[in-house]
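Much of what follows relies on a compact textual record of a protein's fold. A complete example follows; check for yourself that the lines match position by position.
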Amino acid sequence: MNDDPLFDDEIAPESKSARKRQMHALQDLGEQLVSLSPAQLAKLDIDNETLIDSVLLAQRISHRSGKRRQMQFIGKLMRNVDAEQIAVALDELHETSRKAKAVIMAKWPECSCWPVFPDACESCRIQTGRAKRGCLLGAPG
């Protein structure tokens, strides 16, 4: 193709679009960090204090454009940390949450009022030990 020794097909520079996709992925990972509670954030064991402070600040910002700028800054900070380690830790955190929810769901009886009013029908009242309110969705009670 090209006989120029300075031109090497194997070491082609990364395209601008590819770099932008990587930066957006890091920003998305940062958004997942912002959605966590402070206790969950502490479980991740992130070494970068600036990143943790920025995530906590983003959780307090309510203005849309300010939050967007803060998320972009978090994305920039994510370039300097081990994003794979954070992604694995987030996956583990979400997996333990899914397992805990599955255990809870397995303990509850199947009834029409479970998702909204777990203590509404008689079988749920027996499970929870709570006072019977009466089923609002038509289940016996």
Summary: The CA atoms of residues 44 and 89 lie 6 Å apart.
